[in-house]
Design brief:
By secondary structure, the protein is an all-alpha fold. It has helices spanning 3-18, 29-41, 68-83, 101-118. α1 (3-18) runs parallel beside α3 and α1 runs antiparallel to α4 (101-118).
Amino acid sequence: MTPHQAICHLSDAFRAIMGTKSASSIATPFSRTVIKWIALNGPMKWPTGVKTMPEVDQEIGGTKPLEFARDRQELEALMEQFAAKQSGELQPHPMFGRMTTLQWRRWGWLHMDHHLRQFGV
């Protein structure tokens, strides 16, 4: 994943959660409980190399990078929209299922942090 692809991936993830892009679910009782708790509360950083949903993978079905500045501005706008939402306004996470507003905000921060760290930001 390139930095530009990461920006588009993060935008697609926010779109899917806010319901403007579809994403398939792979949620199981184990991922909705144990994996979700570890991912949101564990002390370790998220691992790299974990496959994402095809709909938010820029090499499969995700939004293709076009113009870096425009794509970055789009991500900033989507982050602001996401931050203003409450849990009832969001779609279930493809792996973690339904979450509280606090869990969604934690996920948003961790997901952004995970990809920004890939590129030393």
